[in-house]
Amino acid sequence: MKKAFVAGWPISHSLSPHLHDYWLRRYGIDGSYDAIAVAPDQLNAFLSALPAADLIGGNITIPHKQAALKACARVDADARSIGAVNTLWLENGLLCGSNTDSYGFLANLDQTAPQWRSASLALVVGAGGASRAIVHALLSNGLEVRLANRTISRAEALAAEFGPKAKSNSWDTIDSLLPDCGLVVNTTSLGMKGQAPLAIDLDRAGTDTIVTDIVYNPIETPLLEQARHRGLKTVDGLGMLMHQAVPGFERWFGNRPEVDGRLREHLLAHF
Ligand code: ATR
Asked: What are phi and psi of 121, to 5 degrees?
């Protein structure tokens, strides 16, 4: 039996086991995918012991994505640009890593709002780990990015790292940026259950603007609800979660799995 995992701290609320279990059953694969709680000071020991534990690879989540990159013998170009890994596997006993968050973000947009590709400028709110993967994805696809973050220094640092096509903006300029941005992305935790909403007034957004959120609980965040009321195209964060899992599943278990409405319903039932 092929055994994979998702490791994080804490890990109990992860939807990933439900997602991979669904695909394992659907494709009739003799495999398992379990959530494993790994404390930060145990990460290196856990990763070194993968072969002994009979684990062939897995996902890495908060707070280990950057530390796990350092533990890898090899990482791909996406992981290097983002500075973090979320997907691990072993090759001839060597730990290898990739970051599929950029892929998941783009694949979700392609599936749900393919017209996003005609946008030339994106507003990305937030400058944390998720923002890095999304800025990398957008720049790699020829868009320019405006980064707005509560702590402006983090937006400045991220923009400087990604070069002249990414520029930082202060939080209070968000509304004035909207008319020029074909895509608006929330990468902060604002709007998540129990948190304040992201207080953007979409009044000035163009009618073709696509609004997407990485938050998926609730599935329709206050930002997406506002966008829907204004007739804007919305893309929720559950799609990104599902799509980022595809390359890992294929690597560990051999089938390229499909992201469809049945998987989505299955996950919504586990909220
Ligand atoms: P992740 O890896 O999920 O992106 P992170 O690195 O902690 O997590 O980043 C969280 C992002 O949400 C940051 O952009 C953060 O803004 P700061 O850099 O100013 O901390 C943003 N964020 C979290 N809570 C926020 C709040 N109450 N208001 C505005 N931004 C918030």
From this structure: -135, 135
Give the angle subtended at the CA of 84 by the CAs of 216 and 46, to the nearest 5°.
Answer: 95
User: What does the pLDDT look like over 185-224, one tens digit per residue?
Assistant: 999 999 999 999 999 999 999 999 999 999 999 999 999 9
Q: Which residue among the candidates 65, 70, 167, 193 is catalytic per the annotation?
A: 65
- Distance of CA 139 to CAs 39, 65, 73, 148, 230, Å? 34, 21, 27, 16, 28
Check pocket membership of 149 for ligand 1, CB cut-off 6 A: yes
| Distance in angstroms (rounded) separating the CA atoms of residues 250 and 254 | 5
* Residue 17, CA distances (Å) to 5, 36, 64 in order: 8, 10, 18
pTM over 0.85: yes
Q: Which residues contact 271 (CB under 8 A, 6 or more apart)?
A: 217, 219
Does ligand 1 lie within 6 Å of residue 150's CB atom? yes
